[in-house]
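User: I'm curious whether this sequence folds into something compact or stays loose and floppy. Could you predict its structure so I can see for myself?
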Amino acid sequence: MTAEPISLVVGLGNPGNQYDRTRHNAGFWLVDRWADKLNAKFVAEKSFFGEVAKARWQGRQIVLLKPTTFMNRSGQSVGALARFYKIPLSSILVAHDELDLLPGQVRLKSGGGHAGHNGLRDIQSVMGGPGFWRLRIGIGHPRSLGLMQAVADFVLHPPSLVDQDAIDRALDRCDQAMPLLLESNMSRAMAQLHRDDEPPTKSA
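Assistant: Here's the prediction. I'll summarize afterward.
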């Protein structure tokens, strides 16, 4: 499974120090790691409503984006940057937290519904469809982790130490798969990413 090379990697999250370690910012954690690996630094770009890091990968430009709008306005940032650089949907990879996967799991897919994720919903609305790649970083669901929190409260709190360790291991696999993802060798990337670490049995 190959596709157009990835030119834009978007990490979803909420801006502000108070949200840095919350589950909803898992997409930010991923692009921060990749910026370090690519020796790129994020710079605030008001015209793109976000922080942007530019890197070179095998002779071409890769743009990393962290929207500084809140989650439910992520499409404003993605749309502005994609239009400026003329990046098609198929060359965009969006990293985001995923309630339907346990901590330690990560899945790659193209398209699909937003499943109530406000960041994905807004990107799909602004960009005119779901035809971008998604790196789904498992954070678990309060019910699957035996918690009584409402979902809105759950995603805006940090993971337990056990869950954070599992998420970090999943992000390690994303780092290892980064060359495959940027080259759009998606079949090999899926094979590498979908070998799950054993997820935690309960939150601690």
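Summary: The mean pLDDT is 92. The CA atoms of residues 5 and 183 lie 5 Å apart.
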